[in-house]
Amino acid sequence: MPQQPVGFVEAVLAVVADIPPGQVATYGDVAALLGSRGARAVGGVMARYGSDAAWWRVVRAGGHPPSGHAASARDHYEREGTPIVATADDDGYRIDLSAARWRP
DNA sequence: CCCCTGACTTTAC
DNA sequence: GGTAAAGCCAGGG
Predict the structure, then answer these.
(1) What is the pLDDT of residue A86?
(2) Cβ-based burial of A70 (10 A; exposed 0-12, middle 13-18, buried ≥19)
(3) Which H or E run includes A84?
(4) Are A19 and A57 in contact (CB under 8 A)?
(5) Per-residue pLDDT tens for A46-82?
(6) Domains along chain A with CATH numbers
(7) Residue A54 phi/psi, 5° resolution?
């Protein structure tokens, strides 16, 4: 179902905007919703246009926050009540995908 | 058109 | 629980 010529960036931002507070989606899930498997492409969009999007609601498959942005993301999670789990990793925590993963 | 990079995923050892 | 390798997609030079 070929959609209208919408930029990949706009599509990603739209999905991220659809993620309700307190929940998160993995890069792979976002890509899947777009009909693609470019999880990395999604990350690239966030890196460039994520400044105006809820990038913290998009995490990796393992529940870890974006590379180099764990501290900032953690503040948003606690503020929105996103279920996270403390770990001994460098990030110091991870997302509880079992409860926070967004299901459309 | 070719090559490289990247806020990734998955499988295998 | 870890690391290693290959696979995938989009953007930029």
Answers:
(1) 94
(2) middle
(3) strand A84-86
(4) yes
(5) 999 999 999 999 999 999 999 999 999 999 999 999 9
(6) 8-99 (1.10.10.10)
(7) -80, 60
Residue from A47, A56, A45 nearest A22 by CA:
A56
A66: left (phi over 0), alpha (psi -120 to 50) or beta: beta
| Whole-number Å distance between alpha carbons of A79 and A25 | 17
| Residue ranges near strand B (C-beta within 7 Å) | A 26-28, 38-44, 46-48, 50-51, 55, 60-62, 66-69, 73
Rounded-to-integer distance, Cα A83 and Cα A22, Å = 7
